[in-house]
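Run log, item B.
One chain of 301 residues. Sequence copied directly from the ordering sheet:
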Amino acid sequence: MTQRIIPNIWCDHDAEEAGTFYASVFDRTTSQVVARYPDAGLPEFQREFAGQPLTVDVSIDGYRITLINAGAEFAPTSAISFVVCVDPRAFGGDEHAARGWINRVWTRLGEEGRVLMDIGEYRFSGLYGWIEDRYGVSWQLKLTDAVAEPEPPIIPMLVFGGPLQNKAEEAIAFYGALLPPSGIVRQAEHPVTEPPRTDQPITYTEFLLAGQRFAAFDSPVDRDHPFTPGISLQVDCEGQEEIDRIWVALSAVPAAEQCGWLVDRFGLSWQIVPANMAELMQRPNAYEHLMQMGRLIIADF
């Protein structure tokens, strides 16, 4: 299945370096510069990037993440993290080897990073840990059940906390109506061990958007981890009609509309772009035209 929704990570001048790092950490992973800033004609705030990488595509076991090379305006938060599902079957059924891989990757990601949940055994996994790497990106490494249905290698997870608590179910239904095929894959309740709401379990939901697996839960723990443009979800659309439909339904912050970017009513950032965006960007003055748009108009490239 084609990956229509691509997480984009905002990087502070170091997208190419970050891509090289991830390619060294994860197996079956590649990193490639796929677009560069123009050599001339950039707005003043971008002139330092002339000729430098603009986007870097990282493929982790076939799952695509795009790194955006830009300034310090935005940064990722743990409101969006990436669950890495480690299946012993990928190691010939050798759980010991799968655990060894998790521990090695945990150590590498932790270099200059910070631990969000200690690695160890949990009710939902025999080995699990949540860590933020040196670039501010959060990863959850999870040993999966070798006799259960296989899970995708990477599952983006959305955390609805603070003012967004108890909005996960609403968001899942809203996004699902816009991006079929969609639906709930599974739900599970997990107890909370951190105050102040230890009597309120977390409902963890895995669901499909455009046929891809995502996860979400409402965080009962008081944390300030809002969604930011530091991680956005790019949707590749087949034509102007689909761009318009999704844009009109999602966009809730007019001031945030720029270059195909929008912010929805939950604060989540999206990029609604044509599937042939790379081809369009080869047209004369395409970058200049892009910088003048909010919602993307294919005919205006």
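Observations after the first pass:
- Helices lie at 15-25, 95-109, 168-178, 240-250, 277-280, 286-291.
- The chain is about 20% helix and 35% strand.
Flagged for discussion on Thursday.
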